[in-house]
Structure to design on (382 residues):
DNA sequence: CCTATTTCTTACCATAGGTTAAGTGTGCGG
DNA sequence: CCGCACACTTAACCTATGGTAAGAAATAGG
């Protein structure tokens, strides 16, 4: 399956599309391949693109006042990544986005995205469902972070996202779980 | 402004609506007044309605294995509340929803909501933007919970939602901030 | 194949926040 | 206007996780 076709497949899971609409979509997404360790977005910049990952791995993080990185998203194949706040408002981002592997991405600029949603309003439904699910997930993660122990969150992650452990260094996973790499080591030892 | 009109006002901030569409919306939302301390949703039940709060205050929370309540949402005037996961999947909820004040709500059932989104597809845009913003907020809150101190989260909340402190007991605010009431007391003393 | 760098672990002490338990207001229903 | 439930505070002690520093193991590049 070609890459834009993969994207159409996911769109059509949640909304109907005519052939004309599919053609519009194919024309506005640009396919790129990005090398590992590439900074796609740097804090202070406006987030120019929304990315669909057909293959690869990226992380979103921010850097606090002490200069420490804090990862809040790790995304792999067939997922979207961006800083939605900056992308849709076109204001400077607080976050960074970086490739953790060589990655195949489909990208769209803010201008083209807004235009696309007007030309193919049925995509609003797809993104409504996408953001709705993302929101529900974020709330579940928030509750886990507030009220479960680091041990439980680690176990949950092994259950739900075992692939990540195969592809991402533990330092990043520790940060994603909200703990230090040292604490993650301690947790892993005690099992 | 009548209550359903208030809702139309918010819809029209983010999407266009014809008079016919407005009429459909007016007909599917039911207006109710609920007394304080009413359990709108209990864990194990399917979340039957999506609520728009025209006036009042509600909280969402869950009860852990030890029987302790953990609040993750406090919502007031002109906001939506529901358990979206249960509402859209029509599977049993993990959460509770309760009124903290006598509240005026506009409610819609799952069946009517799905129908409404088909009959007035332009509402998909409204909810896409609503969930997108809610998702961005949830991620910001997640980052604050993971990486800021309780003191900073307390100060942020006073800055951003001072109204809540006028209307909601501190026990609930403490839980929302992810700390115990005792810790919140400690923080308030040290200022 | 060897070296440099990255990744991961261990051990120490420090600390934010949880736990428990007791107390002081304060407002509302009878 | 009394009493009781609710809201909030205080204090002493405890624990999970952080910070720091060092070293071991694994991986990548020359």
């Amino acid at each position: 399956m070609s890459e834009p076709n993969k994207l159409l497949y996911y769109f059509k899971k949640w909304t109907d599309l005519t052939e004309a609409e599919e053609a519009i979509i194919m024309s506005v997404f640009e396919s790129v391949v990005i090398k590992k360790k590439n900074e796609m977005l740097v804090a202070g910049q406006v987030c120019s693109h929304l990315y669909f990952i057909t293959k690869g791995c990226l992380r979103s993080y921010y850097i606090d006042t002490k200069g420490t990185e804090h990862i809040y998203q790790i995304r792999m194949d067939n997922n979207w990544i961006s800083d939605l706040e900056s992308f849709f408002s076109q204001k400077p981002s607080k976050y960074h986005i970086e490739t953790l592997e060589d990655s195949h991405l489909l990208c769209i600029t803010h201008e083209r995205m807004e235009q696309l949603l007007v030309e193919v309003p049925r995509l609003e439904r797809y993104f409504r469902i996408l953001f709705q699910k993302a929101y529900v997930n974020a709330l579940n993660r928030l509750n886990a972070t507030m009220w479960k122990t680091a041990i439980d969150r680690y176990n949950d992650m092994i259950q739900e996202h075992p692939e990540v452990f195969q592809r991402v260094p533990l330092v990043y996973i520790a940060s994603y779980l909200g703990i230090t790499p040292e604490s993650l080591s301690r947790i892993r030892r005690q099992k």
Remarks:
- Chain B touches chain A through 30 residues (CB under 8 Å).
- Residues 149-151, 179-180, 182-183, 186 of chain B lie near DNA strand C (CB under 10 Å from a C1').
